[in-house]
Amino acid sequence: MTVRETLDFSGRCLGVGNQYEFLEELLRQEKQLGITPDFDVDVFMKAIAIPGQESSLVTDYVLKLLGLDICSETMVGDEMRRGISGGEKKRLTLGEMLVGPTNVFLMDEISTGLDSSTTFRICKNLRQIVHMMDVTMIISLLQPTPETYELFDDIILLVEGHIIYQGPCEDVLEFFENMGFKCPERKEVVDFLLEVTSKKDQAQYWSKELSSHSYISANEFAQAFKSFRIGQKLSSDLCIPYNYKSKAAQSPYALEKEMYGISNWKLLKACFSREWMLMKRNSFVYIFKTTQLTIMSLITMTVFLRTTMHHETVADGGKYLGALFFSLMNMMFNGMAEFPMTVLTLPVFYKQRDLFFYPAWAYALPTCVLRIPLSFVESAIWTILTYYTVGYAPAVSRFFCQWLALFCTNQMAMSLFRLLGAVGRTMVIASTICSLTLLSVFVLGGFIIAKDDIAPWMKWAYYLSPMMYGQNAIVINEFLDKRWSTPNTDSRIHEQTIGKVILSSRGFFKEQYWFWICIGALLGFTLIFNLFYILSLTYLNPISHSRTIPLEEDDIQKEREDKGTLVKSTSSLVNGAPKRGMVLPFQPLSLTFCHVNYYVDTTAEMKGHGCKDDRFQLLQDVSGALRPGILTALVGVSGAGKTTLMDVLAGRKTGGHIEGSIKISGYPKKQETFARISGYCEQNDIHSPHVTVYESLIYSAWLRLPSDVDIKERKMFVEEVMELVELKPLKDALVGLPGVSGLSIEQRKRLTVAVELVANPSIIFMDEPTSGLDARAAAIVMRTVRNTVDTGRTVVCTIHQPSINIFEAFDELLLMKRGGQIIYAGPLGHHSCDLIQYFEAIPGVPKIKDGYNPATWMLDISTPQVESQLNVDFAKHYANSSLYQRNQEMIRELSSPAPGSKDLYFLSEYSQPFLVQFKACFWKQYWSYWRNSEYNLARFFMTVFIGLVFGVLFWNKGGKISKQQDLLNLLGAMYSAVLFLGGTNTAAVQAVVSTERTIFYREKAARMYSTLPYTFSQVAIEAIYNVIQTFVYTLLLYVMIGFEWNIGKFLYFYYFILMCFLYFTLYGMMLVSLSPGHQISAIIMNFFLGFWNIFAGFLIPRSQIPIWWRWFYWASPVSLTLYGLVTSQVGDIDSTVVVPGASNNITVKVFLKDYFGYDYEALPFIVVAHLCWVMFFVFGFAYGMKFINYQKR
C-alpha cells in the first residue's frame, strides 16, 4: 500500500468522520455557555466529523504534519521491495494513530531513523496538538537534542524499573542538585540524566566537595523523590478522587463505550476494500499461480489424452484413477500458497488487532470470500481444459459435478492452509505443521492405501481426512457413469459392473448419494477451517523469544579497573586520544571523489507522477576528500542522499549510473582491489544469528586478512579488536536475530564495526552507527568509532540526530541537502566554531542560540523553507565560497600519487585460496546448523513422525505380496515416503538459505570469498545432516514395512533414500538462489513438484505414458528414485500375484516389468542417474548465487 492509502485505511477504521453526534453535543454546549469557536478550528472540526471524504482531509493534514506529503504516493515497501526510507516508515507508524480520534497516545522511540531537525519539527507539532486538542501524550525518544527536550512539559525518568522523577522538565536539575549532583556547562541535560543514574558515570557529577561520593541507587533516588516537593504534589494529586458527578463526566460522549471506532458493517467494508486492493497489487502472485495451474492442466490433458484412454477393463480404470487423483492433488497443492501469504501478513494484523483497528473476523472474512472467485476460476480452468480432452464421462451433468468437487476441494485446501499459517505463525513452524497435515490427509485419502488395507484401529482417521471426501466425490462421479456398466466377468470379484469393481478395489463408496454427502463434507470442512482460522487470529498472539543480552556494565568496569583504566563519559569523546598501534600494520590511504553524479533509471511509477526524464538524479556534482586519522561525519536531512553517496563511494550500488572521479591515494579506484582494503558497516547489522561474537570475528579475520598471517597472529588481532570495541565480556554470546534473541541493538552495532575492523582495512564506511540507540549506547558506539580512527584509519559515518558531544567528536563534516548536493565540507572546529562561522556569515541566517546543538541548528537553517525565505541556494553559495576552492585544491593534491607510491595490487582476487575459503565457510556453516535447533528439530521430528506413520500404515507389507493391490500399496508407500519427506526438506531449507543469502550478499560485496566455496560448504553441511536423516528414516521404514533382511538390498534402499533427500534439499536451495523471494520460490517449488509427481510412474506407469511425454519420465528424479526403491526390494521376486482381469497369475518380477517398466538389470544405470541429478542441483544452486543478485541498492 502507498503511504496515503495506509493512513486512509487507519483513519477509516479508527473512526474519522464518525463523530457527528459528538459534534452536535459540542455545539449545543458551546451555545449554552456562549462560546464562539475559532473559525478555522470550527471548519476543520465540522469537516472531519461529517461522513464522506473525511479521511482524505485528516490524511492530508497528518501527511503535512509528519513531512510525508513528498512520498504520499510511494509504496511502503519491505526488505526486497523498494519503498520509503526507514525514517519515513517510523513517521508512518506514528501517523497511523494520529489520523484517528484518539485522546491518549503512547509513542515509543518515534525518532529512530530521523534527523534531529525532523524530530524537532514533529515534536513541536505534537506539542501543539496536545495543547490545542487537550490530549494526553507520552513519548520515549532516543538521543533527543536539547531543543527537542525543551518542547516537553513533563519528564518521566525511569531507571531499573523505578520512577526516580516525574514532573516539569525545568525542575529536574533542581532535584538532582538537592541530591548533590550538578550538570556541567555544555553538557546536554538528557545525557546528564542518563549518566547520573549510572553506576559507572555517577561520580563525575558529584558537586559536594566537602563530602565524599558514594553510589546512590535507583531505589534511593525513587525514595528521595517522594519527599521532594514535586513528588509530594504528585502524591497529593493522585489522592484526589475523580468527580464522576460533574456535568462533563455525565455527558454520553465523555467516554467511549464501543470497542471499535465504527460499526461492524463499516469495518467489514473497509477490510474488504483493502483486501481487494492488496489482491490487485499482488496480482502477479495470483496470475503466476493460475498460469502454473493452466500449464499443469495442459500437460495433464496431453499425458492422459483420450486417444490413449480406454474404458473396457479394470486396468483401464487404473489410468483414470491416476488422472483423477492428480487433479485432486493439484487442487490441494494449489491452496498451499495461502500459508506463506498468511504468515507474512500476520505482523501487520497483530499490530492493528491490538490497536483495535478491527476484530479478527472482519480481517478474515474478506480473505475467505475473495478467494472464492479465485477457486472458481482455477477449478474451471482445470476442468474445462482436462475433462473432455482426457475423456471422462461425457454427460454434461458429470462435467459440472467434477467442477463442483474440484472447486470445493480447492476451497477446503485454501481454508486449511490459512488456518495452519495462523496457528504456526512463523515460516518454519507453519511449514512443518502444513507438511504433517498434508501427509495425513494425503495418505489417508483412499488412493495411496486402500481403505480395506488400513488397520481397523486406524479407520477413524480415514473418515477424518477431508481429501478422502474429495477423492470419493470425483471417482463416484466418473465410475458410476453408464459407460462403466460393462458386466464383470471375473468370478473372484463380487461386483456387477467394471465401474464398481474399480471402486471396490480401492475401498471407495459405490452409491451415487455418497457424491452429495462428500460435497457436503467438503463444504463443512471449509466452514470449520475458516471458523478456526478466525478463532486463531482472535486468541493467538505472535510467537516471541526475546532474549536480548543486556550490557554487562559490571564486567566491562571490572575488566578496565583490572587494567587501571577509567571509563569515560560521552563528553570525553571530543578529547583527542593518543594514537593506538595494533598487532598488524596497515597502509593509511586517502579517498577523493570529484564531481560525482549518480542517476537511477526512471520507473513507470515515477513517470506517472510527472518525472519526464529517463534518468532521475540522486547525487549532483559531489566532491570531497576522506583522509587517514580524520573522522568525517556525513550529515543531512532524510532523503538528502547520505547512504546513496556512501554506497557509491564504497562500490555497493547494484544498479544506476555513476559519473565522476573516485581515487584512492591518487590512483583510480578499482572495486576488486578496493574491497580488500575497505570495510562497510551497514545500518541493518546483518550477521549470522547462530554463531557467537568471537566466531563471527574469527570468521571475518580468517577470510579477509592476508594469507601470510598465521593463526596465532590472527587470534591476537581479533582479541585486540574485541578490546578496542569493548566486546570481550560478550565473547561467547550468540549473535541472534535483531529484536528477537541474542545481542541488543547497541551490541550488534559494535559487532558490525568489529567484523569490518578485523579485516584490518585502511578505509571504513559506517552507515548510521548510532541509529536506534539511546544517548548512552550511542556514546559507547562512538567511543568504538573514535578508537578506530585513532589507529590512523580513514573513517566516514552517516549520522542522525547526534547529541552535542557525539557531533563534536567528529573532525570534519560533509553536509548534504535534499537533492544530493553538498552545502558544507570542512572542519568542525572547537565547539563547532568553523561550521557556525561559515553559516552565520551568510546574510539572513539566524545566529545560533546559547546551548543549542550545532547539528540541529545547521539542519534547521538549511531546509528548503529557509532557503526560500532567504532567497539563497546553499549549494551554490558553497560552490562559490573560498572553502570550496580550498577543498578543490586539497582534492587535486590528494588525487596525485605521492612520489614513490604504488597502485594497489594483489596477486589474487581474494585474500585466501579456494580450499581455505571452503574450510572457513564450512566451519561457520557447521556452527550455524548445529545451533539452529528450530530447523533441525523440525527436520528430525518430521523424519521420525513420517517414518512411524508409514511404518504403522504399511506394517509388514513388504513381505506379504499375494495380489496386485499389495504391490500397489507398497508402491504407494514408497511414492509417498519419497514425495512427502523430500518435499518437506525442500520447503524447510528455503527459509534457512533465504536468511543466509542476505548475509552472503554482504560478505560477497566485501570480497570475503568466491561464490563456489560458499555454496559448496552449504551443500556439504546439508549433506552431512541428510546422511543422518536418511539413516533414521531408512531404519524405521525398512524394519516396520518388513523388507527382506539382505545387506545388498538395505544398502540400495539407503542409497536411493539418501540421494532423494539430497536432490530435494538441493532443489530447494537452488530455487532460493534463482528467485527473488520466498513466495515465488514456494510457487515454483510446487509447480515442478507437480511435474515430478505426474511422471513419477505411480499415477501413470511409464508404459502407459504417451510417447511424446515419455522422455520426461527419465527427466523426473522422483521416477528414478521410485524405480530404484521398488526394483531393488521386490524386482527379483519370482512368486506370483493375483491380477484382477488377468486369466492367469503372474510373477512379481514380470508384473513390474510389464506394467511399470521396472527392470532389475537396469539398477546400475539408476544409481548413476541419481548422482547426475544431485550434481545438477549443486551447480544450479552455485549458478544462482554467483550470477543472480536480487538485492537492489
UniProtKB/TrEMBL annotation:
A Pfam family of this chain: PDR_assoc
Coiled-coil ranges per UniProt: none
Subcellular location: Membrane
Membrane topology designation: Multi-pass membrane protein
All copies of domain ABC transporter, residue ranges: 591-843
Main subcellular localisation: membrane
CDD domains: ABCG_PDR_domain2 (cd03232)
One MF annotation (Gene Ontology) recorded for this entry: ATP hydrolysis activity
The keyword Nucleotide-binding is annotated on this UniProt entry: yes
GO cellular component, as recorded: plasma membrane
Superkingdom per UniProt: Eukaryota
Keyword Ribonucleoprotein part of the UniProt annotation: no
Regions crossing the membrane: 284-305, 317-334, 355-374, 380-396, 427-450, 513-535, 937-955, 967-993, 1023-1041, 1053-1074, 1080-1100, 1107-1126, 1162-1183
Keywords of this entry: ATP-binding, Membrane, Nucleotide-binding, Repeat, Transmembrane, Transmembrane helix, Transport
Protein family membership: Belongs to the ABC transporter superfamily. ABCG family. PDR (TC 3.A.1.205) subfamily.
Name used for this protein in its record: ABC transporter G family member 39 isoform X2
Species assigned in the record: Spinacia oleracea (Spinach)
